[in-house]
Amino acid sequence: DAISSVERYDPQTNEWRMVASMSKRRCGVGVSVLDDLLYAVGGHDGSSYLNSVERYDPKTNQWSSDVAPTSTCRTSVGVAVLGGYLYAVGGQDGVSCLNIVERYDPKENKWTRVASMSTRRLGVAVAVLGGFLYAVGGSDGTSPLNTGRDDTTELSSAERYNPRTNQWSPVVAMTSRRSGVGLAVVNGQLMAVGGFDGTTYLKTIEVYDPDANTWRLYGGMNYRRLGGGVGVIKM
């Protein structure tokens, strides 16, 4: 079910605490931090696909909805920040899986389309490394929210966006197909965590080395996870 509640983790006390709820219920929402504000982009509220965006200010513990909406409704969307812009990547709009990419300029409160990915991806994981925006895995068919899994293929492929040329280019594929995979940057490498390969929910982890353009398996979690959110905290 779609929910609006939000929790915050304190690594010093090893505790989760409730903070202000979003104004809308959202599942499949994309989140990222830009200028110390947490943005929640798109999602599905249980009945409709959303293009609305809201942002959270931790200083005031308040969400504001005065952010321009994306041009396309999106759930299972990937969101990341590169060069002072907030990017919304892929997802699905309730009719089709998307390869559309747009970016938000907070100074102008405006979304602008940029080059589309070569592959349609929902449940895609995105992260920024070395000045590139990476889009990893996902699936290229319809979502269970829509018409089921009949024409869904989980993806192992990955590609990256160069904002200087406004072009996407392929990188080597992961060792496993992964939709709903978590992605983070650790020590200059991408870490892909869990997901679903079309048959099994995964607990395996693999790491991408941008210098060698290779993925390698890197152990596993204690539990299998689909749609897990991952992030890095410096201790």
UniProtKB/TrEMBL annotation:
Q: Does the keyword Magnesium apply?
A: no
Family matches, as Gene3D superfamilies: Kelch-type beta propeller (2.120.10.80)
Superkingdom of origin organism: Eukaryota
The reply to whether Metal-binding figures as a keyword in the UniProt entry is no
Cite the entry's keywords alphabetically.
Answer: Kelch repeat, Repeat
Q: Which Pfam families match?
A: Kelch_1 (PF01344)
User: PANTHER family in the record, alphabetically?
Assistant: KELCH PROTEIN, KELCH-LIKE PROTEIN 20
Q: What is this protein called?
A: Kelch-like family member 20
Organism of derivation: Tetraodon nigroviridis (Spotted green pufferfish)
